[in-house]
Specification:
The complex is a heterodimer of chains A (425) and B (343).
Chain A lengths: L23 H13 L7 E4 L6 H6 L2 E4 L1 H10 L3 H10 L8 H12 L13 E5 L4 H14 L3 E4 L10 H26 L5 H24 L9 H7 L1 H5 L5 H18 L12 E6 L8 H5 L5 E5 L1 H5 L10 H13 L7 H14 L4 E7 L3 H4 L2 H12 L3 E6 L9 H21 L1
Chain B lengths: L2 E5 L7 H6 L3 E4 L9 H4 L8 H13 L5 E5 L3 H13 L5 E4 L7 H22 L5 H23 L8 H13 L2 H16 L9 E7 L5 H9 L2 E6 L5 H4 L9 H11 L9 H14 L4 E7 L3 H16 L4 E6 L7 H13 L1
Parallel strand pairs in B: 1-2, 1-3, 3-4, 5-6, 5-7, 7-8
Helix pairs in contact in B: 3-4, 5-11, 6-8, 7-9, 12-13
Classes of the chains: A alpha/beta (425), B alpha/beta (343).
């Protein structure tokens, strides 16, 4: 039986970066505005979600309110269960997305922002690129609020899609960008200026460039930065792509990491990094200790496709049409929702580049799209990369799905497999 | 005529293209009597059981089909395509990306998708699909829709069981179209001579997830309720309108598929509600039966706002979440019977 290191010796800790606490700055910037702006009649706000090019909103000077992000706040503040149960009391099935139900509960109970509440927006802007839930949920709320909704229809980029067909999908999305411009002009009299859009894209690209540099440093052994921290620190990528405040924070994090790598230090207690893991899926927001507790088994998560997905580089110095096509391509081709063939190749590459010893796949009952093909993914990794894979069934925002004892048992079994596999190599 | 099967979570697959290509289009319906173990090797149990049953059927029967087309529908259809591509043995597997929007932009995209599908069929099967082939397929398809609409209207005046209606629709979705037309002609004569609507039955409107097996309709028969109107894809959505017979068949097909009553997998919610309300104004009913199959997310989402709106407008609504089983669920029977007694 795998033993927690802590039982017999001093506990292994995650050493946070010196500037980790500075995350408070972008968070304060965002949360204060998300409370104040909806109350100011001259400020436009929109609800949006993952997969939507948030830069488009910043380019229009629209402040993005993010129900998914607020749902994670509710979970971290131990509010999500009661909000989910409230939504189920409204008639929503237990099988539906826990982010969505947290939001339905938050709106209906008018919970305050600091606990995961969110204000009514001026409009709603969403896509179907991650899941149907996004647009189903937002459509219902737009109807409840009686505000206009714009839904980008992203064709599904399935395995085997030819380049020619993909270009056809991009044509369709580019037309929708112009339709979005017409939507903004019709409802709010707003026009997009190319200059402003380029400025926003530049800032967004800088933020993403820094994130990718941070990811490059995560390749170092020992790993300087784990998912225990990135699950929070990626926050600027979710809502602040296009403004300065996140850039400064990432620059400091990057500097910390460079220093740590130069010294040969890792995020775990010195000399204790034994297993390097990849965690696929959305974290358990109500139980972020999970990521920290892996340290007790001398394990560290060094790569997460989820947080990586939020930081693709943005097109600069292209014509307007090329820029739009590039953004459209990014909307269709997100690591979190790669088709199965691309997903397998992507995992194989990450496993090699980051020296991964094992993979945890979060079989998230709130995110069926991300679970589709997961059994094939597991088999492909085990067969081709010859490392253990653990499928952990749980939920990102609903604590009722998290069973402490069984999960601990499964993690311990997984650690034993990792140990045996390492020994055999 | 060889069968070209299709996986369609609503009514998004343009069957007319398959007919024009010289195949019999067959909607994959799954088999509720077969365990889903074959599909469960690749799909978790918390995926829609109907979609898992479709995969089970495809794993067992694909060798008998010329190929399979998967039409964009719910998340299950969209994401399971990759799993089908990996495990279902078929010489032709094609992804047809019908849009969720239905404006002019979507129409242009839909026509481009139709052209891509036609090109893929022509290339793979070494055939040519002419405008005349398409027009003939549209005419045949329309005849079926018109005949179905005529006999479906008899549900509210004649003694026609839920299971008879269901079996007729399924036949039209799975059998050669010529046979369907003959069948519908016979049924029309027979149903017109049926006794009047039984006084001991209640008239219901059925909405929600598609019913894919007759036993659930038999369960409703058992509860002494009659579905006289519905908005299912294996139901009225399939025949409520016809395809315009203009000069350009692709334009006509696009126009049809983007303007048929909206399922929960497509925008918009208000469009769905309006179709249901208009149907209820046309055909008075005692109540609305709303249901969703376990794990069917699109209809589980819609059920709350749709049912609230119907209640607000004065209709009596019962909502159920049902399992995928041919067995009569006594709890469901009790709930429907109790609701019926309250009417």
């Amino acid at each position: 039986m795998a033993q927690q290191h802590a039982t017999s010796q001093s506990p292994i800790r995650i050493k946070t970066l010196p500037h980790a606490q500075e995350l408070k700055k972008p968070m304060m910037y965002y949360f204060l505005r998300s409370i104040i702006y909806p109350k100011l009649p001259w400020k436009l706000t929109a609800w949006t979600g993952a997969g939507f090019p948030i830069e488009l909103l910043w380019a229009y000077n629209v402040f993005p309110l993010h129900p998914e992000n607020m749902a994670t706040v509710a979970a971290a503040r131990k509010q999500s269960q009661r909000l989910i149960e409230h939504a189920e009391g409204m008639g929503y099935s237990r099988d539906l997305c826990s982010y969505c139900k947290t939001n339905f509960g938050a709106v209906d109970t008018k919970i305050k922002t600091s606990l995961g509440g969110i204000a009514k927006p001026d409009f709603i802007a969403i896509t179907n690129t991650i899941c149907d839930t996004h647009w189903k949920w937002f459509q219902i709320q737009a109807r409840n609020f009686n505000v206009p909704a714009f839904i980008f229809d992203c064709p599904s980029y399935v395995s085997g899609t030819s380049d020619e067909t993909l270009e056809g999908y991009i044509d369709y999305l580019v037309e929708q960008f112009f339709d979005f411009a017409a939507f903004m002009e019709k409802h709010f009299g707003k026009k997009l200026t190319e200059k402003k859009m380029r400025k926003v894209l530049e800032k967004s690209d800088r933020l993403c460039q820094l994130w990718q540099e941070i990811y490059e440093l995560r390749k170092a052994i020992p790993a300087p930065y784990s998912s225990a921290e990135t699950s929070a620190s990626f926050f600027p990528l979710v809502v602040l792509c296009g403004v300065d405040v996140g850039i400064k924070f990432f620059e400091k994090i990057l500097a910390d990491l460079k220093e740590r790598v130069a010294k040969g230090e890792g995020t775990l207690t010195s000399g204790k990094e034994k297993y390097r893991l990849l965690f696929e899926g959305i974290p358990f927001w109500y139980k972020m200790k999970f990521m920290y507790e892996l340290a007790n088994y001398e394990a560290v998560v060094v790569y997460e496709p989820y947080t990586y997905s939020f930081g693709p580089r943005k097109p600069l110095n292209l014509s307007l049409e090329e820029t739009l096509r590039h953004v459209a391509r990014l909307m269709l081709d997100i690591p979190y929702s790669y088709n199965l063939e691309k997903r397998i190749d992507y995992f194989k590459r990450c496993i090699a580049e980051y020296n991964i010893d094992g993979v945890i796949l979060h079989e998230n009952m709130s995110c069926r799209p991300s679970c589709s093909g997961m059994l094939d993914l597991k088999e492909a990794i085990q067969k081709e990369c010859k490392i253990p894979v653990l499928i952990l069934q749980c939920d990102m925002n609903d604590p009722r799905a998290y069973a402490e004892g069984p999960i601990k048992t499964r993690i311990e079994g997984f650690i034993e497999l990792l140990a045996a596999n390492k020994k055999a190599k | 005529m060889r069968i070209l099967a299709y996986f369609d979570s609503s009514h998004d697959m343009p069957e007319e293209i398959i007919i024009a290509a010289g195949f019999t289009p067959m909607k994959i319906m799954g088999d509720v009597h077969q365990p889903n173990d074959p599909a469960d090797q690749y799909l978790q149990k918390f995926f829609c059981p109907a979609a898992r049953s479709f995969l089970t059927q495809a794993l067992a029967q694909s060798a008998q089909w010329a190929g399979i087309v998967v039409a964009h529908g719910c998340d299950a259809t969209n994401r399971h395509y990759d799993v089908w591509k990996r495990h279902v043995q078929t010489p032709f597997l094609y992804w047809f990306n019908s849009p969720i929007r239905n404006d002019d932009i979507a129409k242009r995209f839909y026509i481009a998708e139709l052209k891509r599908l036609i090109a893929a069929l022509e290339k793979h099967f070494n055939i040519s699909i002419s405008h005349d082939n398409l027009k003939s397929a549209i005419a045949q398809s329309n005849e079926i829709k018109i005949r179905l609409k005529t006999i479906a209207a008899l549900r509210s005046t004649k003694d026609i069981s839920n299971s008879e209606y269901f079996n007729t629709i399924v036949a039209c979705l799975t059998k050669p179209k010529n046979e369907c037309i003959d069948l519908l002609k016979q049924i029309e004569v027979e149903w017109k001579n049926r006794p009047p609507f039984p006084q001991n039955k209640k008239r219901f409107y059925l909405t929600g997830s598609d019913i894919t097996y007759v036993e659930w309709m038999e369960l409703l028969d058992e509860c002494s309720i009659r579905i006289v109107r519905d908005d299912l894809s294996i139901g009225e959505r399939y025949f409520t309108t016809t395809i315009p017979e203009g000069n350009d068949p692709l334009e006509a097909i696009a126009e049809y598929y983007l303007t048929i009553p909206r399922p929960a997998t497509k925008i918009s919610l208000d469009g769905r509600i309006e179709f249901i309300v208009n149907s209820l104004r046309e055909t008075p009913v005692d109540a609305v039966l709303s249901q969703n199959l376990k794990f069917c997310e699109p209809y589980a989402y819609d059920a709350v706002p749709v049912n609230n709106e119907l209640r607000k407008r004065g209709f009596k609504v019962l909502h159920l979440e049902r399992e995928f089983t041919p067995l009569f669920d006594q709890q469901v029977i009790n709930r429907i019977s109790a609701f019926r007694e309250m009417l």
